[in-house]
């Protein structure tokens, strides 16, 4: 069934805002025509829930998380930006390996599988993922997926 991408993302943003309560403020913005697209809801849920849960898990309380969707020129760009602990440069090339966790996670719990799963979901969808991060400043994850309207 055709997916209303704007509503879909907005609902996920709402769910994560409810989940974190007053600990974080999650903003959601959308640009471009994002309706009636052909995307797999489960893959998309897998991608976005992992990125948003990382943003929540690895950032201080309170802080802002920015979630943006942009549909343009046949590409959907999903961006999740946090003001968290960031990822040391030396760890950044390993993030898609199963069980890999960066050296600065401290006591924050995790299996190190989330981004490995996300990478596979993005690949299945013919998309790309990019992670930019500075330690103690924050992390921006950008996923681009080809857009097919139905
Ligand atoms: P889980 O399998 O429960 O998701 P995880 O969060 O540790 O465990 P990934 O989501 O795969 O595993 O992330 C891998 C590592 O990348 C994390 O352990 C953390 O070191 C780093 N990381 C991922 N996202 C962020 C983020 N937004 N800010 C800071 N570090 C991050
Ligand atoms: Mg994770």
From TrEMBL:
- For this entry, the protein name equals histidine kinase
User: Which intervals hold domain Histidine kinase?
Assistant: 1-149
Q: What superkingdom heads the lineage?
A: Bacteria
């Amino acid at each position: 069934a055709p997916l209303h991408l704007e509503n879909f993302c907005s609902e996920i943003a709402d769910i994560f805002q409810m989940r974190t309560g007053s600990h974080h403020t999650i903003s959601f913005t959308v640009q471009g025509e994002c309706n009636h697209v052909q995307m797999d809801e489960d893959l998309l849920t897998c991608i976005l829930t992992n990125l948003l849960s990382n943003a929540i898990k690895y950032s201080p309380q309170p802080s802002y998380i920015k979630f943006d969707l942009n549909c343009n020129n046949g590409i959907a760009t999903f961006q999740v930006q946090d003001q968290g602990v960031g990822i040391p440069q030396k760890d950044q090339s390993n993030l898609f390996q199963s069980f890999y966790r960066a050296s600065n996670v401290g006591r924050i719990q995790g299996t190190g599988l989330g981004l490995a799963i996300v990478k596979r979901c993005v690949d299945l969808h013919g998309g790309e993922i990019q992670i930019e991060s500075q330690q103690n400043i924050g992390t921006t994850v950008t996923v681009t997926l080809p857009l097919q309207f139905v």
